[in-house]
Amino acid sequence: DSGVTQTPKHLITATGQRVTLRCSPRSGDLSVYWYQQSLDQGLQFLIQYYNGEERAKGNILERFSAQQFPDLHSELNLSSLELGDSALYFCASSGDRGNYGYTFGSGTRLTVV
Amino acid sequence: GQSLEQPSEVTAVEGAIVQINCTYQTSGFYGLSWYQQHDGGAPTFLSYNALDGLEETGRFSSFLSRSDSYGYLLLQELQMKDSASYFCAVSEDKIIFGKGTRLHILP
Hints:
The complex is a heterodimer.
Chain A: E1 5-7, E2 10-13, E3 19-24, E4 31-37, E5 43-50, E6 53-57, E7 64-68, E8 74-78, E9 87-94, E10 103-104, E11 108-112
Parallel strand pairs in A: 2-11
Antiparallel strand pairs in A: 1-3, 3-8, 4-5, 4-9, 5-6, 7-8, 9-10, 9-11
Chain B: E1 3-5, E2 9-13, E3 18-25, E4 31-37, E5 44-49, E6 53-57, E7 60-65, E8 70-75, E9 84-91, E10 95-97, E11 101-106
């Protein structure tokens, strides 16, 4: 157990639907990062939050949004889902700016049918 | 923009040594890190180099040359459990990952 908790582990939904992925960072970590990993692809950076504030943004689609709450847990919202959104979504956390290293959660596998 | 290049696949024999190279282009750079990911699993942090030189952690070592924008991960005394994908990643204000190198180990 890395200390980063992601729920749910698996999610199957239909095109056009909306889902919410949840992440609880490791105790004491202020930064949360979201990554998307498609089949045989690398980890694509989506967005970073630090202590409730958006800190950095990657190639996140407009249909996707995220937020970090006062208790530091984060949610990634994916809407108007398309088949191509099927992927593993990872959350990671770090204690500060995170340049040293991240701790990843076990991921949410999203399948859009 | 940023780019990282690493081989897509490497094959080695159990007990041998293997080196996985990584070259990068980035606008801002704090350091180079390496992560291991087994199939279906989460990436796990292996090492981080902020300065030039070699960092050793057990059977794994990582090297960085900032002037050459180049680094490598060295795995010694390979074991079957080392079969996984290995990602290099550059640290800017966030961490950008390469596409990964799948390491196959033959008995």
